User: What shape does this take?
Amino acid sequence: MKFRFTIGRKIGIGFGVLIFLTLVAFLLTNITLRSSREKTNKVTEVYTPSVIYLKDLNSLIISSQMLTITWVYTQSNDPHKKELRDLIQHQYPALRNTLRDYEPKWNDEKNRKALDSVFVQIDSLFSQEKIIMTQLNSFSAYEDPATVFIIHPMVDEDGVISVQSKAIVDKLKTIVETEQETANSVTTDMLTSFVSLDRIVKTLGTILVIGGIIIAIFTVRSIVRPVKFLKDMLISMGRGVLPRGRNKETADEIGEMARAMNNLVEALDRTTEFANEVGRGNFESHYEPLSSEDQLGNSLLKMRKDLYESEQVLERKVIERTEEVVRQKQEIEVKNKELEVLYKHVTDSIRYAKRIQESILPPESFMHKLLPESFVLFKPKDIVSGDFYWISEKNGKVIFSAIDCTGHGVPGAFMSLVGYNLLKEIIDSMEELNPAKILDQLSAGVRSTLHQFDKTSAKDGMDIALCILDTKKMELQYAGAFNPLYLIRNQNIQEIKADKLLIGFSYSDDQHEKTYTSHTVKLNKGDRIYITSDGYPDQFGGPRGRKFMVSNFRQLLIDIHEQPLDTQKKKLDERFEEWKGNLDQVDDICVIGVKV
Assistant: This one.
């Protein structure tokens, strides 16, 4: 039999070449992708996480240094102290274990040894920080000169904490740079492989395109016109567009296909018209299926019936839902009005309480009568205040005090009324004024009023700074609970510390109740006296959102003490608002200044 190079064989050879080239391109792509995947995994699963965790370790060291400095210079139970403990006890061990998992996968032996060295240095650094945390573990430790002398140099710029932290950060920077370079090198190799693959794929792609074009031209020329026309009709119907032309019907198989296609197009025309009528709501429109087996036609008839029934149900539901929405809207409007009335009643009550509270505060004219050169900066956090101030005269002496009750707002205001009445009763009944005895009786009165008789009771009470000024003897008596007294003389500020005993809280043991201490200060002409609640130094603000702090408050007093008293009050208020910025005021504020 003579071999014939038929159209089928030509098409087979053409497609065989295309398949062979496709397989070559697939194999080369698969090999390159496998190699690239290994390199990518190395970068994403080893180098990149290692760099991230190394940077986290770097940030952790810097944070520990800053938190240690905060520990050294902050006496209160600052949240940052808990953060430092958590950093040393939990965050660092977890990060170290993570890096230990990645370390064996590094190619650079020098980096692995360097990381081991870093861990040793970090352990040494945290040992120093633990010493600081152990030494400064109470308020009394911050007042111990020997402890301060030892601890403060450790956190200074040249101290052991700063030096060790810098050494660790520098070494971590070198490790990060080395690992980053390794990752970049692997990435560069991977990109080079992709460039080579790109060239090969483009070459094979060009051959495939040219071969495909040749086979396509040959195939188009080899297929008869009726088949092409049928294809065009099917494509048009595939897009949802019914063709307008009709196939020529012949007596062969293609003619039978054309006849069936023409019948299908006509049936779809009738179906489309019926669907449009149903869509417009004409449920009486006539439609006949092609036969009893016409699934589409019978489904359309059932759809028409279901849509009609659904429309009736939906109309009823719309009416019901509309009525329900209207009813709910009316109920919401009634509730909103009730809430508005309730809010107004509460606000009006608090504002009335403010007027009552303001009535117990001495007026400015009375204060200037007793203390001609003085000021009071009084800034409640809310409408009513937990802070209040007291000024009175007895036996030729002026008694003035700044009192900070537990809480602020309405609870603080209630406490302020309790404190005011008790303080007035005590001072009126005491023949020989003594500030410590006044505080002892005030504390006992608060305990009795609030039924706080042991250490298990709630700590509701007051901080206070109370002064008795005798201008004839040029003498000042002072006693305080947590709130100190500041005396500025000849550009130097002196702090007279308060007792760490909360007014109203029981500190008693089996024998005796602890009492307050009186301090007597000889005054000179021109001395400035300041007492304050803790609201001013505890205010958060500034560029980093931190507390103003007592040290800054003391420096501010030194900076403004020579100015007139009204100017001092204005400067204090302006500095407070500047520091607070857009943050909320955290507590009530009461600052009293007196010039002797």
The longest strand covers residues 397-405. The chain has 14 helices and twelve strands. The mean pLDDT is 82. The radius of gyration is 44 Å.
